[in-house]
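Students often ask why we bother predicting the structure of a whole assembly rather than each chain alone. The short answer is interfaces. A chain on its own may look different once its partners are present, and contacts between molecules only exist in the joint model. In this exercise we take two input lines together and write out one structure for the complete complex. Read the inputs first and try to guess which parts will touch.
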Amino acid sequence: MSEEKTITIEVDGQTLEAKPGALLIDVTDAAGIDIPRFCYHNKLSVAASCRMCLVEVEKVPKPIPACATQVTDGMKVQTRSPVALAAQKGTMEFLLINHPLDCPICDQGGECELQDVAMGYGSDVSRFVEGKRVVPQTDVGPLIATDMTRCIHCTRCVRFGDEIAGMRELGATGRGEHMTIGTYIAHSVDSELSGNVIDLCPVGALTSKPFRYRARAWELTRRDGVAPHDSVGSNIQIHVRRNRVMRVHPRENEAVNEVWISDRDRFSYEGLYSDDRLTRPLIKKNGAWAEASWEDALEAAARGLRSVAAADADQIGTLVSPTATLEELYLAQKITRGLGSANIDHRLRQSDFRSEGPAFPWLGQSIAELEKVDAALLIGSNVRKDQPLLAHRLRKASLKGAEVHFVNPLGLDLHFDANQVVSDLAGMVHNLAGIAKAAGGSKVLAGRVSVSDEHKAIAKKLKSAGSATILLGNLAQSHPDYSILYGLASSIAESTGAALGILPAAANTIGAALAGAVPKYGAGARPAEKTGLNARTMLESPRKGYLLLGLEPGLDCANPALAKQALAGAECVVALTAYRSPSLEETADVMLPIGAFAETSGTFVNAEGAWQGFGGAVAPLGEARPGWKVLRVLGNLMDLKGFDYLSSEEVRDELQQACAGARPENDLDNTTDGEIQASAGKLMRIGEVPIYAADALVRRAAALQETKDARDAAVARANATVAGKAGVGDGDTVAVVQGGQRAKLVLRVDARVPDGCVWVAAGVPGSESLGDQFGEISLEKV
Amino acid sequence: MANEVLFRNLDLERLWDIDQYRSRGGYEVLTRILTQKTPPAEVIEWMKTSGLRGRGGAGFPTGLKWSFINRDAPVDKYLVCNSDEGEPGTFKDRDILRYNPHALVEGMVIASYVIGAHRAYNYIRGEFWEPYERFQNAIDQAREAGLVGKDILGSGYDCEVHVHLGGGAYVCGEETALLESIEGKKGQPRFKPPFPAHVGLYGCPTVINNTETLSSVPSILREGAEWFRDLGVENSGGSKLFSISGHVKNPGVFELPMGTPFAELFELAGGMRDGSKLKAVIPGGSSSPVIPGEIMMDLTMDYDCIAKAGSMLGSGAVIVMDDTTCMVKVLDRMSYFYHEESCGQCTPCREGTGWLWRVVNRIENGEGRPEDLDLLLDVQGRIRGKTICALGDAAAMPVEGMLRHYRDEFQYHIDHKKCMVGAGA
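Now the answer. The structure tokens for the assembled complex follow.
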């Protein structure tokens, strides 16, 4: 890095070094000199409208805003001179005259920027004796509570929508005193990043609706955590009162989440306190669930699994959720392998295992590097909803001029400019093959590839871009021809020089691979001595004993019907779970209550391979125990060696040693042999997992379930042609049928769904009995 | 000496038609500049010599403003004419649009040529329907004559002129709010710097001039910069339109050389209406501080003289008030206007204008408090110089001016709960 020239300025008599052109307020912030402000935010454009940061600059006749003033060499600034203070106090008085000063009943009280600054710059008596402004109440949806009478018009929320969320949902209407921030007409605020306006709002105008009137800021203990839903691993702060998670805030980490978090990460904590939390161990006796002591339940679990293993260790199958901690995943595979089985997998939503995939997959670059790409090709990805903050990075790249292309089985509502190549599932393979061929890739689907101008343009851009990336998303990973898509993506990467990356679906997808929660690789992503069955084959060839960690079989598996059938037929199913999931109640024999998010210490490995550890913020609910402790005891009870850990850190350290030398690598594996499984002629289901159905916790987050994104998921979608063929129309109730199982849904005619496909969400209530996420389906009129 | 520049054709019939305009040398300058390819720098020098200053109110030297544009920058440049004319008391641009629209068209195309723009917008006040039609008609005629549009007069120079009709917001007369409005956004002033000369319309270098300023350009270039300069007085070159209203016999627009005694203008307007006595004059639009009549009668109408008396020549909007006028009521009305027209973007103006009005209104309604006058002075001081645009200053200055000269009337209102003068006494 080259040394940048610095200049010298003087602030309140203190000499400061600064980069030329830097904003004065950034320079003073870095030096710890406090200048009050409301509208300025270093992640947003400069509005310079609140006038709170007025300072005196030598040779400038009027006080000027520090947030909009670039420093120049030799500049002399007074932040607390009589002129500066008079200006600041003047602004403060103006801000307060129409502010309701209802701090005693305001949720922002105690953590309010206006309150704080008023302490320093406000007067104790108001000279304003007129009536104050009152703004009618508005409802902007289930997440954000509004009290616009408190608004001080800083427009941070407006600029956030415009510049970060990419949806201008809030705006300022009206003039002068009548200016109000709102949605203009009665809209809800629907961005998946909307909750950040709560943090941005310097007053109590925008507050958290689920948290409203629940606690005072000063009653809360703040504990650091890592968000549990997507592979960003957003850094969060968990606010706790009396052993209860009260709310979640972002924690700044420029390399990961900057200062933002998605609504999913912010509001999912509500799911911790759903009615169906499992708080005591349960044993199924004669088909009925009975509460049991931990001793009895653990004993029953150990006995059941050991007796299956004693007869034939290969009859043990372990399915783990990629939302589990690294420590839990490591111990689960250690138990499985300790019992002599190699049947363990976390890839619950994958259905095509023809190629094993890399041992240590990853994003292919750092998260921050994503915003620097000049071109990107996303394959089978609804990145905006699946990894919202990775989409934010791509959006930044796009705004800077990057070309972003999607090859997808459905059209997306994006918040940045992108080219979308939409086709059915088989068409995706053909499109990708076309791009691969245009890029000069070798031996990919030879003989049956047609190359369009669009394919050529994409290939050309990927080749010519200074920095390009190819990313395989959640939809690709569940695609019936994932192995071919992967091979083609590798081929394109190879011939264009683009970085190949995976967009891991869950918080610990990468951790699960490192922990050895795959049949072919053990801890540290080293080849296992013995290989076993994968998540699919473990269900297709049912096992006699199953160990389940953190999953809901009816909602977390690629084929819920198959999963439930396999589990129901087993002799012994032991489930470590935080919830009494209906599909577990149907199929399990022992349910052991474990701590959910925030209730256990552990580690997540995010998309870029960063290990991020966290402590437990609260004790697990009821009699639930941290998963790693339950697994440790289970290991001990089954007389397995090496289960004497005293802390989760010990578990992590052991795995970390095994991981020494492991490097993330998306092997350039050009295997594209094999037939395309996705039938071109038949109606196929697009079983996308909606944003608020991703895992057990978020499915139970009440407020998130009331959002537009959640409501929009409870339907079937097909385009007019497909609907017409089935003789149904928009708003009709239809039956979607897979493998003889039916689900009734309202049909929405939606042009974003390609021909030959019906969009029926996976992971949502009503989908538990259906078959493959991306399998054949039929649509019937009811 | 009157009517030398903008009103020089007032004696003609249908003077807004292109033939009439051409009959007195209209478009000759444009033709000459384009066919001779006069170097833009030369035109700028003439403009500087002419002493023409922005007629919208701020009085910024026009030649200097044009010289800020980097003509060679590889981006589009824009010329914008500000015909929003929202300042209460001002109605001179309206008459240019009605009676001399071709002077504006010619001035806009010349200015566009000088700064290297190929697109010019005229932002016309939304309420000006007739002036808008006249001006649009002038563009159409000019286009038909090959004076606007592609390859003007075969010179290879293209210049489109468009009209944008405003929506009725006073603040859109502020040049950067005007740009926002043309861009289709809410009319809110931009923070400066960057100035429009660098980052203007659609982010491109832009010159924004007042209607009267641009309409003066053809005459200046035809008759000579020195001629124009010498019409006026030092530091205030040329002639100026004054819109005089209020308690005079013949309110209207008069073109007079800069430096003309106010008494002469007053005389042209017929003096006071029957039987009344001159009390006070607002010399340059409602935001300029009031000047007592006896002082005003000794002033001349130019930038320096009015400034020395503690006010501003502004847009040349002269509001005359007689001795029946209650100054509390005047300020009440003016403060209400600024409160209503504040865009709401920055705090001191959004909150302060409403506060000022409410206090003045309270005094007017007999509910004033002893501390109110000091409060008004303090609050206006907290607005002044603290806002993004000049609307805050415009709201504050009249308050200060009124209390400087007529504090006793305000005090009387507070003490006696009624007017000292006029019908309310």
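Check your guess against this: Chain A is about 25% helix and 20% strand.
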